[in-house]
Amino acid sequence: SGFYYDGFFGDRKLNDNDFSSIEGHAQQISKESQPFLRCVVSKAEALELFKENPFKVQLITNKVPDDALTSCYRCGDLIDLCRGPHLPNTNRAKAFLVTKNSAAYWLGDQNLDSLQRLYGIAFPNDKLLKEYKKFQEEAAKRDHRNIGKAQELFMFHPVMSPGSCFWFPPGVRIYNKLMDFMRSEYRLRGFSEVVTPNMYDARCFMTSGHYQNYKDDMYSLDVEKQEWMLKPMNCPGHFLMFDARVRSYKELPLRFADFGVLHRNEASGALTGLTRVRRFQQDDAHIFCRPDQIKSEVSGALDFLDFVYKIFGFKASYALSTRPKKALGSKEIWDNAEVQLKAALDESGREWSLNPGDGAFYGPKIDIRLQDAMKRKHQCGTIQLDFNGPIRFNLQYRKEGVEEVAEDEEKVEFKGAEEKNAKGEVIWREGRLKNGFERPVVIHRAILGSVERMSAILMEHYAGKWPFWLSPRQVKVVPVGTQFNEYALWVERQLQIYGFYAEAETSGKTLNKKVREAQLEQWNYVAVVGAEEQNALSVNLRSRESEKPLGAFSMIDFIAKLDKEAMPSSQPLRQFEAFQGRLPEAKAPAAEPAAINGRAKEQKPAFQKQGSLQVRKAANHKFASLSVDDDVEAFLEVHPYVKGFEPSSADAELFEQLSESGAPETPNLRRWYDHMESFSSLERSSWQKAA
């Protein structure tokens, strides 16, 4: 936001005193209501007008055609080249702030003169300027570079490896958890993770077209007198894997996911923390599908993306970008693809906008922008259709009804960009499409985008206060004295065994100091232990989110509490789904004696058990109106839904009632409730209509 202006000051560097002086001059000019006057001049007139300024003379000479006109604007004594438009007069902007200055080489060339770039912003009134300053103060507190340093998450070395991040152990825990989260969803959503090389013969990127268009942004290597390159994206490798053997229509859709390391040759001046780096990883996936599968695959991608962003607490906006003027493929293919993308967006129930002509040359796409806690928007996720890649890599699959023949007869030798002509231009030859075969459509899909960039966004979104499942510091175990260090270390070990990150603070510091340090380090929980806790195998718990202690928890209850806050999932994990209305049962235990100590053992019916009484109380006795089994807790122990094995309006109604009073605490109803949360309100309403 705001504006900048480049100036040549010789060896003098602007400072804060200059900023105040400039702001004062701007305020005075605003009060004078000086008009902005537009002038249109010829190239010769422009050269005469700016003959004392060598920088503008060079711009006019190189940018303005000999027979063309150019525009200037005059404001008081200042006249300058500008395209416009401008405000009517200077009084429209009443509040000014110079924000910073930096070095800027003329024309971006470090061999030319060094200029100073002054950044500023203007508002129509002081109130908006104050709001801007407040926003900037909060943004500075949330700056991921500051949080990363304070929490010792990552670092950069400006000399030895600029633009490539060094992750410390706490940062690695966040980095890996993000990828574990995606991997867990991959297993549930039918993606197969692959691993691909970092280096490729340059001919691979000649085939893809990246060599011709993005060579300057790629790192090249000399390998045995052959040009090789570090990959800037994963798709060419996935194309080669698809082409490794003959594919059948029965195999589609084929979903490859990859966390491969990517490198892009960013200019040193453009490197910015984790948001602009040279080395990074993406949650990259490529879906190879038939044209008739586009809609269902895009719907699945939208659902996946929506789930992930909701877990992070982001709001997302969607836009469909359609065929540009220069596009690869027939109008019929584009029209069909756009219709399927529109249908997928419409059926999802999401609001979306249209960006006519803004698609990529190789296919239409859905652009997704997320909004963080500071209401800033970020482009991370993408869903893109690609007709170009399958053609350039000669990808094809056997159509339905085509007789299979021996693979060695059927395989077509890969043809692509394999050489350069005498002028050094890349030669590319399209491969032959065999009879009875079709080309797949490729869907490029990313949700996190760059894991580095998403980590930065999340640091600022959460202001360094990580949710428990993603936190690099989950539980700090604090003994009240060194005599309880052994028990503290035991608690630490049990938490680690159950998959949580815990550290025992066994130093000789005072209890208050240890607790205070844990709070400043943003540990989610502090587990205080002493004689009472050691005797009972328990902890006294404090939460980062609560000023008051949470009280005593047995280790079993503590683990159960943490399990509820563990990594989220779109589907219930470690639970059986019904097969044809049946669930597997455990082998029955051996029969108990008929009598114990001479007295028959009393058996309580299911509805009299404590769990059932808790369920009734939590639901305010509203189960009767739902026409379900009188004991819902017992019923849900063997059924996934309140009326059996299919969702119904009863599930939707009960979920709505419980949502008002809070999530239930009994195990079976809580499991059912968590499962209901994974459905959208639109899906639940469809059960009501169908019932």
UniProtKB/TrEMBL annotation:
<dbReference type="InterPro" id="IPR036621">
    <property type="entry name" value="Anticodon-bd_dom_sf"/>
</dbReference>
<dbReference type="GO" id="GO:0004829">
    <property type="term" value="F:threonine-tRNA ligase activity"/>
</dbReference>
<dbReference type="GO" id="GO:0006435">
    <property type="term" value="P:threonyl-tRNA aminoacylation"/>
</dbReference>
<dbReference type="InterPro" id="IPR006195">
    <property type="entry name" value="aa-tRNA-synth_II"/>
</dbReference>
<dbReference type="InterPro" id="IPR002314">
    <property type="entry name" value="aa-tRNA-synt_IIb"/>
</dbReference>
<dbReference type="InterPro" id="IPR045864">
    <property type="entry name" value="aa-tRNA-synth_II/BPL/LPL"/>
</dbReference>
<protein>
    <recommendedName>
        <fullName>threonine--tRNA ligase</fullName>
        <ecNumber>6.1.1.3</ecNumber>
    </recommendedName>
</protein>
<dbReference type="InterPro" id="IPR036282">
    <property type="entry name" value="Glutathione-S-Trfase_C_sf"/>
</dbReference>
<keyword id="KW-0547">Nucleotide-binding</keyword>
<keyword id="KW-0067">ATP-binding</keyword>
<dbReference type="Pfam" id="PF07973">
    <property type="entry name" value="tRNA_SAD"/>
</dbReference>
<keyword id="KW-0030">Aminoacyl-tRNA synthetase</keyword>
<dbReference type="InterPro" id="IPR018163">
    <property type="entry name" value="Thr/Ala-tRNA-synth_IIc_edit"/>
</dbReference>
<dbReference type="InterPro" id="IPR012947">
    <property type="entry name" value="tRNA_SAD"/>
</dbReference>
<comment type="similarity">
    <text>Belongs to the class-II aminoacyl-tRNA synthetase family.</text>
</comment>
<dbReference type="Pfam" id="PF03129">
    <property type="entry name" value="HGTP_anticodon"/>
</dbReference>
<dbReference type="InterPro" id="IPR047246">
    <property type="entry name" value="ThrRS_anticodon"/>
</dbReference>
<dbReference type="Pfam" id="PF00587">
    <property type="entry name" value="tRNA-synt_2b"/>
</dbReference>
<dbReference type="InterPro" id="IPR033728">
    <property type="entry name" value="ThrRS_core"/>
</dbReference>
<feature type="domain" description="Aminoacyl-transfer RNA synthetases class-II family profile">
    <location>
        <begin position="171"/>
        <end position="467"/>
    </location>
</feature>
<dbReference type="InterPro" id="IPR002320">
    <property type="entry name" value="Thr-tRNA-ligase_IIa"/>
</dbReference>
<dbReference type="GO" id="GO:0005739">
    <property type="term" value="C:mitochondrion"/>
</dbReference>
<dbReference type="InterPro" id="IPR004154">
    <property type="entry name" value="Anticodon-bd"/>
</dbReference>
<keyword id="KW-0436">Ligase</keyword>
<dbReference type="GO" id="GO:0005524">
    <property type="term" value="F:ATP binding"/>
</dbReference>
<keyword id="KW-0648">Protein biosynthesis</keyword>
